[in-house]
Amino acid sequence: MFHNSIKLISRVCSPIVQTSIRHYPAPIKRFYRKTGVISSNGRYEITLDQRKLKTPKGAPFYLESEPLAVAVATEWDAQKETIDRSSMHLTALSSTVLDNPSGLNKLDIVNYLVNYITTDAILFHASEEKRLKELQLAEWSPIVEWFNKRYDVDLKPTDGLEVPSLAPGTAMNISRYLSSYNEAALNGFMFAVDTIKSVVLTFACMDRFISVEKAVLLARLEEEFQLGHWGRVEWAHDLQQLESQARLAAAVMFVHFNSSNAFVKQKIASGEV
């Protein structure tokens, strides 16, 4: 009886281990051999063999930029035995513009980007780590100075978590510049900002003041500083860096392909760039 009681207590007190199994969707096998671009009424569509590409919502997938259409077709052509949608950033951006799943209009995106400036990653300097702050001043300050001069604003970095204040006219100047782009290009700006957490670095990259690689490195400055002290898992951190570079490069291309020559001339003539 004593032994039976011990067994019963053991059963009651022993934790019940439940294993949960995650069910991931099966990868989609490549179902086409060739990709192509066809033109119709000034728009461009992507073909996968004889099928026309559609958006996730099932709408026709069409683009107004031929170079962008070629780039999207190249993304699909680069797929191997299975389709990795997470690697096709231009396709995803184009689908977002066409489907507009968040219901955003042009003004919504402009306001989002302008408001993001007060949380811009490179405006927050370390307050306790002296060496890190010196590095931030050396690497970030020239970019902020360029941004201030380029867009006639006066952004000032802050120490710690204090939110930087915007000087009068800052929001208006940046809003005016962004509003000169069409809605598709603004989606590219938003994708870039969400990738590197910085409006300033995004603008510097779009204006070709710095390269994509440099922008990502500056966005990761604090992380790279910490990794220099504590070490890094090369494959993991390298993959993160390469993914950020791929996303930012796609955003830059997307903005460029959605900005016509006439559009650029209009901005230059008005003195907004």
UniProtKB/TrEMBL annotation:
Its main location: mitochondrion. It is found in: Mitochondrion. Keywords: Chaperone, Mitochondrion, Transit peptide. One of its GO terms (biological process) is mitochondrial proton-transporting ATP synthase complex assembly. Transmembrane segments: none annotated. One of its GO terms (cellular component) is mitochondrion. Belongs to the ATP12 family. This is Putative f1-atp synthase assembly protein.
